[in-house]
Amino acid sequence: MNEELKKRLSTDEPAAREASNAISDDTGQLDVRFVLWRQFCAEYGVPIETLPSELDEEKRRRWEKMKEEHLK
Known about the structure:
This protein is mainly α. Helix content is 54%, strand content 0%. The chain is globular, with a radius of gyration of 13 Å.
């Protein structure tokens, strides 16, 4: 796991756990947005191949809320 991601997840400080909404060449598949999407899909039974634009209204609202809580 990326060292920066490990550091963010291990801290008790909420602001430090927030992630940038930018994709980095260094993180690739471990980019926090992709990890968050995989977590969302697992929690709500959404196939991982689904695009956010394909979500129904309720799940799209949940996805937006999750992004707001975890991404800067």
